[in-house]
Predict the 3D structure of the following.
Amino acid sequence: MTTTAERGVARALVPPHPTRYSLTPKTTLASQLDGAWWPYSRDLSTELPPLVEALEGRLGRITRAMVNPTRWPVVPHKVPISGHTVHMGWFTELDPDKLILLSYTVGRFDLLVIPPGTEPAAAARLLTAAAIPGGVLTAGVLMSDEAETGRRIRDARSSEDTWENDGGSALPPLRHPVVGARMIPLPGNMRR
């Protein structure tokens, strides 16, 4: 049986998850989004500090963050980050799939928020799409496009499974046509 102190030490030895995000490369092209973030949970107090720490090298000190509360069960007023505090705001008019960060250096920085339970392949597509320089798609459009892509992929898999389970199968690979066959020249291919 482990004690509370031993569990605390064990937790301290476990390395934290890497922060999953993508950023638009520095360019003169304006984009709807500046990148994407794929948190592990909907707990802003736990998830926001590693993101802010990862981004402060590029953005400078981040002082405020804003979200739509429909996707976050609890929106704290302040989130402590190593060395400072990020003040949180929430607005129901804000795209629910977006996080806005404010810093003194860069100003406003908009990130698509990918839901924590998203399949890795879908998350990879969203991380890439949100970081395209000059991107014109909003967070909501990217999420709805990905939902449609996911439906098409599931439908294609379902059709293939139905084909396989209903007696159909892929054709066996073709054997080399010359092996065991006699080649008969056609009149147009004859040499003179």
User: Anything to note?
Assistant: The two ends are 92 Å apart (CA to CA). The chain has four helices and seven strands. The longest strand covers residues 84-90.
